[in-house]
Amino acid sequence: MSARVIPIEIVSDTICPWYDLIIDEFACITTAIFNGVLVRCFVGKRRLEKAIATAKNRNLPLEFKIKFKPFQLDPTLPKEGVSKIKRYEAKFGPGRIQQMIPHMQVVGAAEGIRFSYDGLIASTIDSHRVLEYALQKGVQLELVEELFKDYFERNKNIGDDEVLADAAARVGLDKQEVLAYLKTDQGKHEVEEQIESAYRRRITGVPHFRINGTYSLGGAQDPEAFLEIFEALAKQ
Predict the structure, then answer these.
(1) What whole-number distance in Å separates Cα of residue 14 and Cα of residue 71?
(2) Mean pLDDT (whole number) for 119-142
(3) 116, 148 in Cβ contact below 8 A?
């Protein structure tokens, strides 16, 4: 019996700053809390990957086709970036941030992620454009991983064209072609339309997972939550 292909759509930003469970003054969205601190898109990606690996080990007759869709948590951020830690401190206060950082580092470490809070936080619109470009080239998932590492671990400004092009080159794309692409507005309208579509669908937190067009999960779910859905799909 051939494996059934299960599409998984992940609506996500390439940054996931902390937001309260109230309407956020910057992005007008809410998000979920995990273990007392706010979840991360990178954590959600890693947990989905764990669930898929377990599904394969259990020989579930499923194949997974994953696609990342754009979302912007803070459209007001400039392309040149601002201090990540100062942005967080301005919103939550230095004392609270110093409490949150160790918790998030513990959560990340459990998933093999070394969260760092130095560097800049910047507009993500161009990172989403490059991810759409990478999708057409068949390397979107690989580039998502590189961009997450650049932002969350390497303290790089993923609003910077050189940083984006270097990440693209590491997954096999031509750096000069990517730089030329970024100098245009190509793909920007399509990305903005997808972001607006997410708002219209009332997606209020990222990452947001839509599995096989029928199941939806929000936040950095445990692998078991995905596996429950995979098991149900395998029985259909």
Answers:
(1) 8
(2) 95
(3) no
Using an 8 Å Cβ cutoff, are 47 and 111 in contact? yes
Cβ neighbours for 235, distance < 8 A, ≥ 6 positions apart: none
State what percent of residues in the chain have pLDDT above 90. 63
Structure tokens at 183: 């100098």
Would you state the structure tokens that stand for residue 173, as one six-digit string? 């794309």
Q: Which CATH superfamily is domain 4-229 in?
A: Glutaredoxin (3.40.30.10)
- For residue 16, report the phi and psi dihedrals to the nearest 5 degrees: -135, 80
C-alpha closest to that of 229 among 52, 18, 83, 84: 52
Give the model's pLDDT for residue 166.
98
pLDDT in tens, 134-192: 999 999 999 999 999 999 999 999 999 999 999 999 999 999 999 999 999 999 999 99
Question: Buried b / exposed e across 77-88, counting CB within 10 Å, b at 16+?
Answer: beeebeebbebb
Q: Please give the pLDDT value at position 17.
A: 54
Residue 98 and residue 103: Cα distance in Å, rounded? 9
